[in-house]
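Slide 14.
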Amino acid sequence: MSTTAPNPTIPAHTVLGTRSALGERLGFQDFHLVLVNTEQAGQSFPLRNETLKIGKAPDSDVVIDLPTVSRNHLIIRRQGDRFLVQDLASTNGTFIDGAQVREAYLKPGQLLELGDVQLRFQSTLQPVRIAPINEERLGELVGKSLPMRQIFALLKRIAPTDSTLLLVGETGSGKGLVAKGVHQLSPRKAGPLVVFDCAAVSDSLIESELFGHEKGAFTGAVAQRVGCLERANNGTLFLDEIDDLGMDLQPKLLRAIEDREFRRLGASGTPVAFDARIVAASKKDLWEETQAGRFREDLYFRLSVFTVTLPPLRDRKEDIPLLVDSFAGESLWERLPQGVRDQFTAHTWPGNVRELRNALERARHMVEMPELTSNSLLREFAQPPLAGGDLLPAGYTGPFKESKEELVRAFEREYLTRLLARAKGNVAKAAREAELDRKHLYSLLHKYGLVQSDSE
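Slide 15: predicted structure.
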């Protein structure tokens, strides 16, 4: 048994970003077949080209010279981020997870059988080096730091594809701008960019918002409604906060993405076909969510064909002057008092770029009124202890989502500060009291600039 040498050049459509928000380097999702039940069990055959022909014939891409395998048994065709298996009129047939097929799509984890030869279809993350570009802007994205220029290079390569894209990053790190930039750089830019926030819709309405419904489908459905998937046809669908999507809806979304069709709630006729690129965003590491049983592994693999992790602002502070001038214009950074600039560069920015944008409004006034001291900004950054009903330092104003995020940040900071005070800086003791994994607690402490040494 033999196979031709794999193509050493990673095609442009397979170059990916990092899998998680926890520090993995740039990589690509590598698909391959692994022999299960022959003397060569464990041998792997990558699927990096547009087609992969398997059979007994010497000119096959993967040669399996065993009795139940035909000379030309099957071919696998790569279609973007999907793999179509086509049986070539083989003698003993082609099976996927025990079901005989003539033509079917292969999914990670499934068992492909050629007669009595079994191969497991698997996906692994492989590291890849991405040379940063020299530009400091990509669409509305701004940054001169190495991580951002590497991301710019990555996005320029993956934007022209139709593959699904997973964006991982903290709240306010710019995931929405990335989705917008990818859409504008894609062949679908003339089509719609539809944004759906999985965290902003109640559980009872989210299925209707995604798939739409027919009149009378449920109480209150007085007219037909077109859902996000249908509205995004010929364009891009941005699924924000995908980590908040309920487990009951995840298989329905997966099926729609796989089949490129769905049914509105209450519909019984022909499914609605749609053609949209899917971009999903998560504030959590979805791989860890799958391991904890809170996110379906098959949906994770479907969404993470491309993955881009956006660094938090605290890890790219050299971008702050560029961002300030980009948001405010007129070379505002150089005109700010030195004390204010010091505050901007010293702050941990738990709200990331969104928080920076909001802080600039106060900074503009400081430039216009020099009599204001730099201490005027401290109350915005210091996050004073919460008192009674005054949970939001900025008040209950502004968009609901941003106010909610500010409230959560204020609560987390205050909770962690008091937790550490009770534990006298002992992180292990604090983790036990809070019933948190110590690693997760360290991550939260780092997020709010409260990192302490563990005295245990």
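Speaker note: Residues 392 and 417 are 17 Å apart (CA to CA).
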